[in-house]
């Protein structure tokens, strides 16, 4: 075939694929065979093809077997639908006004065809463009949002500094978690990483035709190289992928936006990479058939062996990502078995040429080093007119042996499959027999037969115990016959027996008629049974029960052995020669039209799983991966599995210096141009940290100078030691001090009552009192730390010098009483303060301890006000107080257990406040009324959603469950009928709610706190804590 013929064939294939995509988009029909049939009937006329499909009016068409079993599809030799079931439901789009619809369709097709002719861009590419533009628009729009909605970097660059040898995260620049998950999975394939980093564009780029592919692929490859180089050597904790996303967006021309299909993105990404490497390969190996490293890494081949109307056929196909159906299967091997066999395959193994049966098998002839499975977890609900996610559980192994699917093992596998089929048939029969033993009976309620016999034995051996002593029982009388006699006696004069039935009129006597008959047993028991009957019956029941238990055990044992035999069917060494180890799992949480993506990637050097969730990269475990990836537990499940050939270690091996033999790491792994690029970026980051450090040093110096000036000018105590209030000058602290002085004076001898001796004794008395408080076990409402700073210092083991100076400051207070004794002690205390040398006490440490105590009091006030508002059901106002109290409290607890309050208590009410707000907002949304709906979504967007990362960041189980509850409440609306405007608002809102990133959003400034005296604070805090013990929150 000449070059010209090859080019023409490729253009024809691409044009036919474009027609199929356009026809699929217009009609909604997903059956590829039916679409091809329509194009054949219409001879390529799209308008006639649409008419052909719409005239069906939802009838199920007769499928052309020759088309169905033709696995080769023109123009689509890379990505084929393997083992999927065709959707034969044709959507009727004609409605009542068919002419208008036909004209609209014709116009749409004409515009689509013209756009393709002018730009060469397919509908598939336009779909990717739409989501990329949406991502960029989201990123730009974030700059215009309100303060509470902005995903912002921490202003402190040290918070964004990369820890040594930690993987680098990717910033979510606007609904790009799908991009991060895919890129991280590929980046951690070290062979792929090396190929990208060392890629160089063709030397004769200027000689190449300036086509759309070159304009798109080469700039994208350069940005991908830049991104990878930053992920290798950046000093930043996470990097921004906006430039690569911008290139993707600019490659297409579309103004619409829609949810990105991640599998489609991965297809297209590998397609672009293949094209880029193909240009380079053709230049490097002129005259020879070039080898494309992307094809060698990600693409394999399989053989389709089939029978069509009695005639056998074989076709070889190339595949990239291998699609697998999830619905109806419990594990990955079941999915693969179903994907490898289509139709009735009995005739494949027979020599009957005239057999009418048709079917086909797929056998891998060549597996790629990187084997990727697409798990089809989305299906279109024709009744509801929207896609739905399949949440069923699907297990997959960490080590997958592919021998049973290889063409070289075809005959062995067929034998084993036939053996498994026979075992499963026998297993079904055994399970049915076992079910008859375990669910015995003919009614709606059934019980294990062994239990039924046991109950019968217990009934047989029971002895009747009557409600009252009764003598001989007339066995001929009906049960309860004595009741009639009692009623007759109570009703009056005796009536002749022969007239009883005709003359007695029943009289309703509730008490008499509801009384238990005296001979009714207290528990069920045989009324009449002889010893001989009892002995025979007990013997039979014992024997029958033993027989039933033996039969049940035998059946269960046989079933277990068959299960074990099936499990071990492929466990011999000959069928364990093609091992593939799980490299990455890409996870989706949410519903079909909204959700969040992240990836679990195995680190072979640390021998652990890592979780890549946008900017957050954390160590994980196989147990966490199973919980999030298998499905069936939450709305999260795997949608893509990436396995690597375990016999090809080069895929994940580090690179070594050929001269020194040392492993390359960091910047040493980069080529010169990328090394310079990363050094420049690191230099900018270093400069940012230096500027931050300079700014913080300047602020600290200013604060220290201001503190020194204030101390020298006023020499006043810390504000909490003489806390003013609108009505009280905080007499309690002065009274405590004066009381300590009086007590010390009473204990001193007359000759020892010098001011200096009294000061020492008074300080000892006060310290002893406060030490006793610090050692007492008190209820949460009686927190002595609030009453005095020394209690706080003692409990947190402050240095002795800090305690001494603080007590001296207390006794040096000018607000003490004006009697001579107090004045003299105050003067002595002030003199001692002046005598303390700078080297004797670290004033920075002293100020730090007092600042911690001020923070503790502020945290207490935040908590107190938040709890008061929560109890008043003012959840909107309470939230910020509870949020800041929790955050400040955690900062305190980092320094020590007694630095703050009970974090579980604050966490409980923070969590409950968010749940209440979520409940209220959901109720407003359910009302359907426009003002209510807007208010509800406003509460979620401005209050609840920004707080969700705070609940996720510390991995506290109760917080995670609360987030799951909130998300489930809103996700439950996806399956309900609602107005289109509500559906649109829900679709816009859900991605924000389902975003699993732990990147903290910025909030408004904390609420301004009122001023409280120590006495007011203690009393008010005590009241609110006491009320909590009486009225517990709706905790879990």
From TrEMBL:
It comes from the Eukaryota. Residues 716-756 are annotated as: Disordered. CDD domains: Peptidase_C19I (cd02665), UBA_UBP25 (cd14354), USP25_C (cd20486). One of its GO terms (biological process) is proteolysis. Its EC number is 3.4.19.12. Keywords: Coiled coil, Cytoplasm, Hydrolase, Isopeptide bond, Nucleus, Phosphoprotein, Protease, Repeat, Thiol protease, Ubl conjugation, Ubl conjugation pathway. Residues 729-741 have a biased composition (Basic and acidic residues). Gene3D superfamilies: Cysteine proteinases, DNA helicase RuvA subunit, C-terminal domain. SUPFAM superfamilies: Cysteine proteinases, UBA-like. GO terms for cellular component: cytosol; nucleus. Pfam families: UBA_8, UCH, USP_UIM_N. Belongs to the peptidase C19 family. The muscle-specific isoform (USP25m) may have a role in the regulation of muscular differentiation and function. This is Ubiquitin carboxyl-terminal hydrolase 25. It comes from Oncorhynchus kisutch (Coho salmon).
